[in-house]
Design goal:
Layout: E1 2-5, E2 10-14, E3 17-21, H1 35-38, H2 68-71, H3 74-80, H4 85-88, H5 90-93, H6 102-132, E4 140-144, E5 150-151, E6 157-158, H7 164-167, E7 171-174, H8 194-201, H9 227-231, E8 241-248, E9 268-276, E10 280-289, E11 294-307, H10 330-342
Parallel strand pairs: 1-4
Antiparallel strand pairs: 1-2, 2-3, 4-7, 5-6, 8-9, 9-10, 10-11
């Protein structure tokens, strides 16, 4: 058996049969949870605030999201109805004038924590049922989320950026007989690794790696099975993990200084491609053709480089200074640019080396 626990629902898959547990409610907006899960956390005045409530120094304007989805909630909408410049004027949008009020920040953070605890309890219900049915020792369990979540860090909320807090996700894997004693790895992994991992662990043939042109291929994979990491957590692995997010997509600024305003309904005029290595997060915002799905790497709207060498154990108080224009780091920027442009093939684990040229 395999259980896939996703933040909306859980699916138990057995052969060709699937049982859906609709009661499994995960943290999503709005943050609803029974009172007892709120009671697990301190009173509002004791809820911590983000240590980095403003955007990174030298952040390109295109990287910014005005978290419009959150502002559609009636209570938060009322806080910003008289602040139209927060959506259109970078001289105002990136200041304390446009951040969430302190009391509301604490309220939202506590509600999010409560929703997470509520979610955790529901996962426990599924696992308890699994064990009561006698399937605990032969069921692989995967728990993941499809995106991170910002809770006021950098003055951002929700998921609509390429910062670490928006792209770093949970990826928990239980394999009976292999992970029973617990293990963890600092290797870089991605959600596209889930499918090939489950296939290998379940003894199912893993489809071939996708060729460079795969639009007409019925089945192939771009991810790498993490099964080898379960036996050797410190082995050499991927050189980077990749994700992307478009602009304006309804949440970015309506116009970027130095560029014409975005056309109405033009939600993917710019694509932000980002890569996380063991030392850096590197992001490029480039023009994008939604019809062809092609990026124009020669038309750059913004570049970001954040140092993670001193904060590998921390996600929520870093990325505060964009170093992309630092003269001493231009060689690093050049190397990361080449890797990002080449894409995931340039960062595969060493044992996939021979497949890079497929």
């Amino acid at each position: 058996w395999i259980i896939l626990v996703y933040y909306h629902r859980a699916f138990i898959i057995a052969g060709t049969h699937a049982i859906e547990y609709n009661f499994l409610l995960f943290q999503h907006t709005p943050f609803f949870a029974p009172k007892k899960y709120f009671d697990l956390y301190p009173s509002l005045q004791d809820i911590s605030l983000p240590s980095n409530p403003l955007p990174p120094v030298d952040m390109p304007a295109v990287a910014w999201s005005d978290w419009g989805a959150i502002k559609s909630w009636n209570d938060i909408k009322a806080l910003f109805t008289d602040k139209p410049l927060c959506k259109n004027d970078t001289s105002v949008a990136f200041t304390e004038k446009c951040t969430m009020p302190v009391n509301k920040t604490r309220e939202l953070r506590k509600a999010y924590y409560a929703a997470v605890s509520y979610s955790d309890a529901q996962v426990g219900r599924v696992i308890e049922k699994l064990e009561s049915l006698g399937y605990g020792n032969d069921t692989i369990i995967v728990l993941w989320g499809d995106h991170g979540w910002q809770l006021g860090e950098h003055g951002e909320w929700a998921k609509f950026t390429n910062f670490e807090d928006a792209t770093h996700v949970p990826f928990l894997l239980h394999v009976p007989g292999t992970t029973n004693s617990g293990m963890k790895t600092s290797a870089l992994v991605e959600l596209i690794d889930i499918f090939p991992s489950l296939a290998e662990l379940a003894g199912i043939p893993v489809p071939e790696m996708c060729p460079k042109e795969s639009r007409n291929i019925d089945v192939c994979v771009e991810g790498s099975s993490v099964a080898p990491l379960l036996k050797e957590p410190t082995r050499p692995w991927k050189q980077g993990s990749f994700s992307q997010y478009p602009r304006p997509d309804g949440v970015g600024l309506k116009a970027i200084p130095g560029h014409p305003p975005f056309a109405q309904g033009d939600n993917e005029h710019v694509m932000g491609y980002t890569m996380r290595t063991d030392m850096w997060r590197y992001t490029e915002w480039v023009s994008f053709n939604h019809t062809s799905g092609q990026a124009d790497w020669n038309t750059v709207w913004g570049v970001e480089l954040y140092n993670h060498t001193a904060s590998m154990a921390t996600n929520f108080d870093d990325e505060n200074i964009n170093l992309a224009s630092d003269p001493s780091l231009q060689k690093t920027v050049s190397i990361l640019h080449s890797t990002l442009k080449e894409g995931w093939r340039s960062a595969l684990p060493p044992h996939f080396e021979q497949e890079k040229s497929v």
